[in-house]
Amino acid sequence: MSSGFRPTRASLLLILAASMLTLMGGAAVAPALPLISEAFPRASDTDISLIIPLPSLAIALTGFAIGHLADKYGKVKVLILSLAIFTVAGSSGYYLGTVQSILAGRFVLGMGIAGMSAASTALVAAYYTGVSRTRVISYQSAAIGLGVLVLETSGGGLATFGWREPFLIYLIGAVILVGVVLTLKEPAREDRAEAQEKEGARARSGRSLRSAT
Q1: Mind listing the pLDDT tens digit for each residue in 16-46?
Q2: How many CA atoms lie within 13 A of 39 on its CB side?
Q3: Residues 6+ apart with CB under 8 A from 46
Q4: Using CA atoms, how far apart are residues 169 and 155, in angstroms rounded to an integer?
Q5: I need a labelling partner for 153 at 20 to 30 A (CA). Which of 71, 84, 142, 170 fits?
Q6: Could you report the per-residue pLDDT of 113-156, keeping only the tens digit for each?
């Protein structure tokens, strides 16, 4: 890249860490759902049950638009903003006092997750090419699966202290946010085009050699 930036191991770890959080919408607080129902006996079963799927609904409704913003304004910028939203909205259930406000926070959380998913996937495509990209995509898939297991287990552990405590696990986004700010750089669009051209040239060269033989 003309900016001189090359993704490092730290860059890769942060992208994988952000990817790991993308399925954290319902997994982290699911074990606390019965406790939340007990804490708000006047709330309907429908409102309580929406706490889990509402982030996924927000992702479905806003994901495309947020992906467009990442392309237009910058992938790293959107990732940083999304991690901030994830941290604040995700942990909001710890200090909010009504089911309605918690549901609002859960919807905003989904918007943050949509941005994290779009930006991290776009950064993989921008930073890596060829075999390296394929390898990183496989790492990303593994990180997402591992995230569900680790975060749901952690949420269950925190639920033993009370219904609010599992929401604190979303504060992990702040740690990743600091790392992203310090480590990742915005990929230049023209450099990405050059990489695509080089990749295309290698493919054409390979086809020519096969034809010659």
Answers
A1: 999 988 877 777 888 889 999 999 999 999 9
A2: 18
A3: none
A4: 7
A5: 84
A6: 999 999 999 999 999 988 999 999 999 989 888 887 887 788 88
